[in-house]
């Protein structure tokens, strides 16, 4: 069942500075009974809330060093973001050390110097499992993995309908479900690799949507990550080639397509067509560039010519006029007669 609270408000001991308040955020905090809570004190509070009280406060001075990480997830939920999207590849703690900041000054300060916290919770509503749809971040590992095929299928359907933006959301949610499970497995061992294969399949579907959305550089980024980890991923090379061709990376696109051919000779007809398209596009671009630069140089020459016509006195002033030549001749003649 799910408990919905209007709070928590968290206070530092002493001055009781408010750290988080879900009333101000405009979104109640939700907790699912049966899931392990990040903070042990929340487990106690929820049991007491459900069985006895409607409003309850408690002070916690142990294990609250984890609260800043939990708080970041809660703040992301409040603004409609995935609470776990910020630590895709590692756990929250490892990610914090990798980037040296949680992105909030107050949480960074609390992380450096943990203090006792007050948690105040008010119970608003209790829902049975059949009364609400659970979001992927609230599922346990088994439930997450069962959700993946459904999300995958929904993404494929949306892709076929041309709803690429909606499809990316389904693929991304499925990826996050798997990543949350994968982080608990030892890297490169069989269970981890099985999940990695699932992630790569979904990521490449995600990239196909990005291609249609003309997000070419993001496609290159994702496919490059896959290729670096799995150099035999033929589809990653193919999508990378398509993206590189769109951004005029001729050499990279050609290398990607030829690598596809090495990995799957059955793609010969398709790759031949892609290489022909690449050659034609580059020839057209080179011709366009040639005409553009020629036009640019012609324009520069005309502007220079126009500038010269607008300033005729500049050249004349540097020359000797007929009157000046006559005067200079008379002066020379007088000097000659005086010398005699």
From TrEMBL:
- Residue ranges annotated as compositionally biased, kind Polar residues, are 317-331
Species of provenance? Cyprinus carpio (Common carp)
Please verify whether the record's keywords include DNA repair: no
What this protein is called in its record is: Aryl hydrocarbon receptor interacting protein-like 1
Q: Which UniProt keywords apply?
A: Cytoplasm, Nucleus, Repeat, TPR repeat
Q: Which SUPFAM superfamilies match?
A: TPR-like (SSF48452)
Would the keyword Nucleus be found if you checked this record's keyword annotation?
Answer: yes
Note the InterPro entries from the entry: AIP/AIPL1/TTC9 (IPR039663), PPIase_AIP (IPR056277), PPIase_dom_sf (IPR046357), TPR-like_helical_dom_sf (IPR011990)
**Composition bias type Acidic residues, residue spans:** 306-316
Q: Where is the AIP/AIPL N-terminal FKBP-type PPIase domain?
A: 12-125
Localization of this protein: Cytoplasm; Nucleus
Q: Which domain of life is it from?
A: Eukaryota
Which residue stretches belong to region Disordered? 302-340
Q: Which Pfam families match?
A: PPIase_AIP
Quick one: where is this thing mainly located?
cytoplasm
């Amino acid at each position: 069942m799910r408990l919905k609270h209007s709070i928590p408000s968290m206070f530092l001991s002493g001055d009781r500075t408010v750290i988080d308040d879900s009333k101000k955020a405009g979104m109640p905090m939700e907790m699912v009974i049966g899931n392990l809570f990040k903070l042990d004190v929340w487990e106690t509070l929820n049991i007491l809330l459900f069985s006895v009280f409607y409003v309850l406060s408690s002070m916690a001075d142990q294990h609250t060093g984890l609260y800043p990480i939990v708080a970041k997830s809660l703040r992301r939920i409040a603004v409609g973001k995935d609470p776990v999207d910020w630590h895709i590849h590692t756990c929250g703690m490892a990610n914090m050390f990798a980037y040296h900041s949680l992105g909030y000054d107050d949480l960074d300060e609390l992380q450096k110097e943990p203090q006792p916290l007050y948690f105040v919770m008010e119970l608003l509503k209790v829902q049975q499992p059949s009364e609400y749809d659970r979001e992927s971040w609230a599922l346990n590992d088994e439930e997450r993995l069962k959700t993946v095929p459904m999300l995958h299928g929904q993404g494929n359907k949306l892709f076929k309908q041309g709803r690429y933006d909606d499809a990316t959301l389904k693929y991304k949610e499925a990826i996050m479900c798997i990543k949350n499970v994968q982080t608990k497995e030892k890297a490169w061992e069989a269970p981890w690799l099985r999940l990695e294969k699932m992630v790569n399949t979904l990521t490449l579907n995600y990239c196909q949507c990005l291609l249609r959305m003309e997000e070419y550089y993001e496609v290159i980024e994702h496919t490059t990550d896959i290729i670096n980890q799995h150099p035999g991923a033929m589809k990653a090379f193919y999508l990378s080639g398509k993206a590189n061709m769109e951004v005029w990376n001729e050499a990279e696109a050609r290398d990607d397509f030829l690598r596809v051919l090495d990995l799957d000779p059955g793609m010969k007809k398709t790759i031949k067509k892609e290489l022909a398209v690449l050659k034609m596009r580059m020839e057209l671009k080179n011709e366009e560039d040639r005409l553009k630069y020629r036009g640019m140089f012609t324009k520069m020459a005309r502007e220079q010519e126009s500038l010269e016509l607008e300033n005729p006195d500049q050249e004349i002033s540097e020359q000797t006029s007929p009157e000046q030549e006559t005067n200079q001749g008379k002066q020379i003649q007088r000097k000659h007669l005086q010398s005699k």
